[in-house]
Amino acid sequence: MPRYTQDSRERVRDAVDFEELVGARTELRKAGVRRLQGLCPFHDERTPSFGIDPVEKLYHCFGCGAGGDVFSFVMETEGLDFGGALESLADRYGVELEREAEDPAMAARRERTDRLRALLERTAAYYVRVLWESPEAEAARSYLVGRGLEEATLREFRVGFSPSAYDRVLTASSRAGYSDAELLACGLASQRRDGRGLIDRFRGRIMFPLCDERGRVLGFGARALRPDDRPKYLNSSDNEIFHNGRIVYGSDLARASAARAGRLVLVEGYTDVIALRQAGVPEVVCSMGTALTDQQVDALRRLAPTVLFCQDPDTAGQEAVKRGTTAVRALNNRTQGRGLDFRIVRLPAGKDPADVVQHDGADAMRSLLDRAVPLARFEVEMALENGGTSTDGRDQALEAAAAAIRPLPPSVLREELVQLVAGRLGLSENLVGSALLTGRRPLADTSSPSSSPTNGARAVLDRREQTERAFLAYCLALPDEGESRLAAADLDELFSAPETRRAAEYLRGRLRSPAGELPAGDEPLARLVAELVIRAGQLEATPAKLELEALQLDLHNLDRRIATARTEGHERIHDLAAERQQVLDAIRHRLS
Ligand code: ZN
């Protein structure tokens, strides 16, 4: 993304009506002078634990720990990165963004990219017109209608048709001022075999625009209509704009509903995506090939914490799961369980999701989605089904099942799977348990399982860190007293937790306008500052209470220094103990 000036970011923050922005996701009501609360849009709850400060434009949920500023809110609810959130808000609230000064080479590159993108957009629009207006596209229209797809949904995805003539896109584009080099660069033209000039790359095919998560066309997937046209699917080849391994088809349309639903449905074909959206499952995408790349898995994770992978249960389908999950396991290892909850939806044999929707109805599809099983369970079930009944077959099934169970942490799921294997193979649970201990680790997986993400459970803070946060919340609630206390304090000494210390450093001098200068893309800081501001809004703060929090903090601080002095055999331990006694007396005095 281009770098925008900090001033631009602040103007966007100022322009946003935060109450309206959040209010579109959850109903808010007044709960204090500067506080609104409602049901959390990030987790399921019956009583509100989600609060916003409409002036500072910060939010925090005491239930699941979600929190941050206007930019985090849009990133979380719409599955965008920081730049995307900034641009989307600027657009919505009519703020002109200014770029940081670019060097001429950068500016030239950006100009070129803008032109190529515009060329792709106009070509996509052209293909759509051909699909709905040209007699030549009749067969394409009847194929799509035959799959149960409606015009309105197809238009939403900008599905089109490329005419079979050799030069339609070429001619129209050069008339509009685009060069041959530009047509080649964005993959719309190819060299003629005889080397003399160019031809349209896509001819006589159904065209699916491949977009980034903001809906900008980067390339095309093209399906042949005639059975003798090879290949059946022809994609844009990788170029300076388009990278097959980064595309998640449908993510631009799916992201808002995926963020709301907290899940994403992953299918294999373009028409499956379109059919499911039409059937009322809008949180649906497909990957662009056989195996998920790391970048695609990262993109999925940005869209939702849970992914339901729709699979035909035949052998090819099982292979697809294997190919599909290596990158997921790698992500889960990398993020230590805060990766993706990857579940498998078992489809009826020989049917893809579009078939299920068309022949059995949307409800049938939804109930299959609701019955999705964790990846490990799917693998265990497959091992048991494939194993056969001979001794060798049962041994193989045991080894394959053990390989799927072994990486799981102690959990109900793990216990259930051990019982399932024991029951099905007629073995004792002890024997299955020892197979888990002795077996080799599978190569594809090294440690962590696809355990469910823990964004709900928050680490329990120790007492000291709680005190540090409470103190900062009081400083925010009473900014005059707070500023003089923070100005006088040695923050390194006073704050033991690195995160809290960073928040204190940031807040010093900014207590009266805490959200104003949050640095771009620093989510942990935004989250903590938001929490502190929302807490501050709930306090009935008085200078005496602030004083008490400060004393509590001193007490923790002295405890730590005494502990250090003790291990180092320090002389000053008596002075410190005396000081501690004074602080303790002061606290008692104020509490009595
Ligand atoms: Zn929540």
What is the strand and helix layout of this fold?
Blueprint: H1 6-15, H2 18-23, E1 29-30, E2 36-38, E3 50-53, E4 58-61, E5 67-69, H3 70-78, H4 82-92, H5 104-133, H6 138-146, H7 151-156, E6 160-162, H8 168-175, H9 180-185, E7 189-191, E8 198-200, E9 205-211, E10 217-224, E11 233-235, E12 248-249, H10 251-261, E13 263-267, H11 270-278, E14 284-287, H12 294-303, E15 306-311, H13 315-334, E16 341-346, H14 353-360, H15 362-370, E17 373-374, H16 375-387, H17 391-405, H18 412-425, H19 429-438, H20 463-477, H21 479-488, H22 491-494, H23 498-507, H24 523-538, H25 543-567, H26 573-591
Parallel strand pairs: 13-14, 13-15, 15-16
Antiparallel strand pairs: 1-2, 2-3, 3-4, 4-5, 6-9, 7-8, 9-10, 10-11, 12-14, 16-17
Helix pairs in contact: 3-4, 11-14, 14-15, 16-17, 16-18, 17-18, 18-19, 20-21, 20-24, 20-25, 23-24, 25-26
Quick recap:
The chain is α+β, with helices and mostly antiparallel strands. The longest helix is centred in the N-terminal third of the chain and has 30 residues, at 104-133.
Class by alpha and beta content: alpha+beta
pLDDT average, as an integer?
Answer: 86
Tally of separate domains: 5
Helix content: 40-55%
CATH architecture of the largest domain: Alpha-Beta Complex
Chain oligomer state: single chain
What name does CATH use for the topology of the largest domain? Answer: DNA primase DNAg catalytic core, N-terminal domain
How large, in whole angstroms, is the Cα Rg? 29 Å
Characterize the main sheet: 6 strands, mixed
The kinds of small molecule bound in this structure are:
zinc ion
The shape, in one word, is globular
Instruction: Please name the fourth-level CATH homologous superfamily of the largest domain.
Output: DNA primase, catalytic core, N-terminal domain
Low-pLDDT runs of 5+ residues are 440-460
Percent of residues in beta strands? 5-15%
| Total helical segments | 26
So what's the CATH class of the largest domain?
A: Alpha Beta
What is the spatial order of strands in the main beta sheet? 12-14-13-15-16-17
